[in-house]
Each structure stands twice: as C-alpha cells, then as structure tokens.
Amino acid sequence: MRPITVTVGPLVTASANAISLSQTPTVGALTLNGALVSSGVATMDTPRRVLITTTANESAKTFTVTGTDWNGSPAVEVVTGPNATTGYTNLDFRTVTSIVISATAAGSLTVGTNGVASSMWVRLDEWALPQTAVQCTATGTVNYTVQTTMQDPNSPTSPVSPYLVVWNSSLDSNAVAATASVQSFFAYTPTWAKVTLNSGTGSVSSVFAQAGSATY
C-alpha cells in the first residue's frame, strides 16, 4: 500500500458558544447564532468535535447534530444530553447545519468547540501484509493518540454508524498520549486508523505505510 499521510491540528482557540449562544430551547432546532455561524451554517477552522455545555440535567434528551465531515459528506450524530456538564461528539464536523433537541431543555445551554479533533480516517488493506509502519511528526505543543478499529461503516454484513465506531488506543504505549514525534507500527491489520489530538496548540502529521500489496 502506498504511504498515506494525514494531519490533525493546529486548532484555533476553543469556544463553548461558537455555534450556539446561551439559550433554553424548546423541542426542535436550536438557534445557530455563535461566532462561527454565517447564513445559518457553522463552519469550523478544521474538522473538530462539537461541544455541548448544559447548566441542568439534560441526560434524558438527545441532541441530533447534522453537518458535514472531513470530505464534505453529510454527517449526523446523536449525542446524549450532558447532566449539568459538558459532552461532545465522537465525529469531527467541518460544518454544522442543524442541532435538534428531543425535548424542551431544563436549563440554558451553549454549543461550541473544545480542543479535541481527529485526522481523516486511514483505510488499511486486509488482503495485504499486516505489518504497517507509522510515523507521527509533532509540531508545537501537542498531546495525541494513534487509534485503530476493526469496525467498518462500509461493511456489507455488519455496518456500524460512523459515530458509534469504537476506537482503541494503539497497543504501542509510546503512541498513546504522546507529546513528541513517534515512530511505531502495527503487527496486525486494523480496518481503520486515525490520530486524535487530545489537546495542544500544535499539529501532528502522520504517515501510515502498509507492507506489500494485495494480489488478486
């Protein structure tokens, strides 16, 4: 497989109300009126998590976030409401076009961004050799983790919604909560891999190079 390079970061400073200013919404769509919103669409600096902050217990409600992903394709995620705290999406949104709450909120809330984001997903070749070299080059201040999954939203037999995919940290502890450049490897073939920026103002550029190529 040819080497594939993905990058995550840097992120502009997070803002808890960059998508929706403080409001107590009734059942239905929230008002998108934060600093990132223009003509009803919130556009991120780079695809990143959407943060929901509540002042009351909203755990019996859901928030359906709709927008686009890294590729500009439609993205939808259903988030359980936080209990007077914060919660954020599993997916990275490039844009947010709608946020719908399932019932009237018990208190005020805001929607914005935090300091977490992931790279584009890298699809490995299950028919090629399993060994895969991974090199992460860190720039600036970062904390990041290489993650993998065997689940596949595109599976013809057991697809999983993208936001429900379970990601596992790399088996190489050097690539978990790393703060500097790392060279690692996979001794097996995960279905997908990505790099998640847990915090920091810098960026991480990662190269995945799987050995050999499939022969059909």
Architecture overview:
The chain is mostly beta strands and 216 residues long. 0% of the residues lie in helices and 47% in strands. The protein has strands at 4-8, 20-23, 28-29, 37-38, 41-48, 50-54, 62-68, 74-80, 86-88, 93-101, 109-113, 117-118, 122-123, 132-139, 142-149, 168-169, 182-186, 192-200, 203-210. It is globular.
Task: Outline the secondary-structure elements.
Layout: E1 4-8, E2 20-23, E3 28-29, E4 37-38, E5 41-48, E6 50-54, E7 62-68, E8 74-80, E9 86-88, E10 93-101, E11 109-113, E12 117-118, E13 122-123, E14 132-139, E15 142-149, E16 168-169, E17 182-186, E18 192-200, E19 203-210
Antiparallel strand pairs: 1-19, 2-11, 3-10, 4-5, 5-10, 6-9, 6-11, 7-8, 7-10, 12-18, 13-18, 14-17, 14-19, 15-16, 15-18
Number of helices: 0
Largest sheet: 6 strands, antiparallel
Distance between the termini: 14 Å
Mean pLDDT: 96
Low-confidence stretches: none
Classified by CATH, the class of the largest domain is Mainly Beta
Got a strand count? Answer: 19
Q: Radius of gyration from the CA trace?
A: 18 Å
* Total number of distinct structural domains: 2
* CATH-derived topology of the largest domain: Jelly Rolls
As an assembly, this protein is single chain
Keywords:
216 residues, mainly beta, Jelly Rolls, six-stranded antiparallel β-sheet, five-stranded antiparallel β-sheet
Task: Offer a quick outline of the entry.
This protein is mostly beta strands. The chain has no helices and 19 strands.
